[in-house]
Structure formats: structure tokens, C-alpha cells
Design a protein that fits this description.
Elements lengths: L14 E5 L3 H11 L5 E5 L4 H9 L3 E4 L1 H6 L1 H4 L5 E6 L4 H9 L5 E4 L4 H15 L21 E4 L4 E3 L6 E2 L2 H11 L6 E2 H7 L10 H15 L7 E4 L3 E4 L3 E4 L1
Parallel strand pairs: 1-2, 1-3, 3-4, 4-5, 6-12
Antiparallel strand pairs: 6-7, 7-8, 9-11, 10-11
């Protein structure tokens, strides 16, 4: 069921520019995201991007690998959140996009549009300066130098910004490490349950909620607030900068 609009005034809904070389994917994004509170512009060539950005000031630019390659020069300097949709398993392509073309985030496509919309909502909140979410966590622009959390997957130690490290359990470490791979992007509950080594068909999902609740309490005792957002009907997202160490 489509999510409600983010604002009563349609003009206040976030605006996305889908600069997609694939006609099918471009049409899917145009039709899919509008059901979840987003306005969508489309571009089929790299030459269209600067004019559309100048005229409409979109909040997010979404490209596929073909468009990223063709319009790299037009994309690198754009003052907005830049997201690439790539097929599964394209790790090398993601690294090129992130480093050479200055894409902020790579997401795997195909993806359910409810999940894609929720992911973009989370990323957009992260990119807004001086905004506080419901947990009172201050956000900074993507790419700025901000205090980051640190997680070691080998020692199971989590270090909040400016505080001593905390010892976690293996399950807590796996949970946070899964979120830390893509900060700001919701991890669906079935994916998280699988990452924890359980079979979704036999796993009581309330155990996952209990794990998160206990983890919040543990972190709060250190004087920090765990920056995890629960996305209704989707999963969990880590909504702060975090460094994942081996």
C-alpha cells in the first residue's frame, strides 16, 4: 500500500531527477516513486541534466551506470545527493562511481519501490544540514567532516564519538555491521535475520526488536544515543556516520 505523502502540499514533496539511460528503468522510477511521496523528473541524456538541475533544483539525482559513464562531467560537481542504481554484484562498478564520479551512494536495483523511497528519505535526512531527527541527532551534509562512530567486526567493540569503546555481543556486532555497510539505507528485516544466521521461516521477529531494544539501553548507559531508525514495515537504518573496521 502506498505511503502517505510526505507533505500536504505536493509542491513540498522531495524532488528526484532520474537521469537514466534505460527507458524501462526510467519509466519504472517515474511511476513507482510517485506513489510514495516523491516528485520525479526524468532525463534520457546527459545533456539534459544541467538544465533540469538549474531550473528545478532537485533534491536527489539518480543515475544508472550507463548514464553515469556518459555524463560523468555533469555529475561530479552537482550540489545535491547523487545516487547510482546498479545491478547486483557490480562491486567494482560501485567503487568507480563512488571514487571517480563522486556518487554518494550505490543502491542495488531491482528493488521494491517502498524500500527505495524509504532509503532515499533516509539519505535525504542525512544530507540536510543542522536538522535533527526524532532522536535529536544532528545531521550534516554528506561528505562533510563529522564525528563518526567506529565498529570493529573482529573485537566486537563499538566506539561512540568522543566516548570510550563498548564491548558488544556477536549478534549485536553483526546487526550493526550489516547496517554500517550502507549508512542511512534501511536494511529489510528478512535480510537482517539472514545476516544473523537465522531462517526467516522459523525466526520470531520479535527477537530482533528485543536485540535492538537491549542495544539501545547498553549504548545509553555510556551517555550516547544509538542512531538507529526503525523504518515501519521495512527494517532498520543507521542514520549517522560510521567506520567499519576489520
Amino acid at each position: 500500500m502506498p505511503a502517505p505523502a510526505l507533505e500536504d502540499d505536493p509542491a513540498q514533496r522531495p524532488l528526484l531527477l532520474a537521469a537514466i539511460a534505460s527507458d524501462d528503468l526510467r519509466l519504472q522510477i517515474l511511476e513507482g516513486l510517485t506513489d510514495f511521496g516523491w516528485r520525479v523528473l526524468t532525463a534520457s541524456t546527459g545533456k539534459e541534466i544541467p538544465g533540469l538541475v538549474s531550473q528545478h533544483s532537485p533534491d536527489v539525482l539518480v543515475v544508472d551506470p550507463d548514464m553515469a559513464d556518459r555524463a560523468a562531467g555533469n555529475i561530479r560537481s552537482l550540489p545535491m545527493l547523487r545516487v547510482a542504481l546498479v545491478p547486483p554484484g557490480e562491486t567494482e562498478k560501485c567503487m568507480v562511481l563512488l571514487r571517480a564520479i563522486k556518487i554518494n551512494v550505490c543502491l542495488t536495483f531491482p528493488v521494491a519501490f517502498e524500500l527505495l523511497a524509504a532509503s532515499l528519505d533516509g539519505l535525504l535526512r542525512l544530507s540536510k544540514p543542522d536538522a535533527e531527527d526524532q532522536d535529536g541527532l544532528t545531521k550534516s551534509r554528506l561528505g562533510e567532516s563529522i564525528a563518526a562512530w567506529s565498529l570493529s567486526s573482529t573485537t566486537w567493540m563499538l566506539t561512540p564519538p568522543g566516548l570510550p569503546p563498548l564491548q558488544l555481543t556477536q549478534a549485536e556486532t553483526t546487526f550493526l555491521a550489516t547496517l554500517a555497510q550502507n549508512p542511512g539505507i534501511p536494511v529489510p528485516r528478512p535480510q537482517m535475520i539472514a545476516a544473523l544466521g537465522h531462517n526467516i521461516d522459523y525466526y520470531d521477529s520479535r527477537r530482533l526488536d528485543t536485540l535492538v531494544s537491549r542495544l539501545r539501553v547498553k549504548i545509553s548507559r555510556s551517555g550516547a544515543v544509538l542512531p538507529i531508525r526503525s523504518i515501519h514495515s521495512v527494517g532498520y537504518a543507521f542514520v549517522a556516520a560510521i567506520m567499519l573496521e576489520d
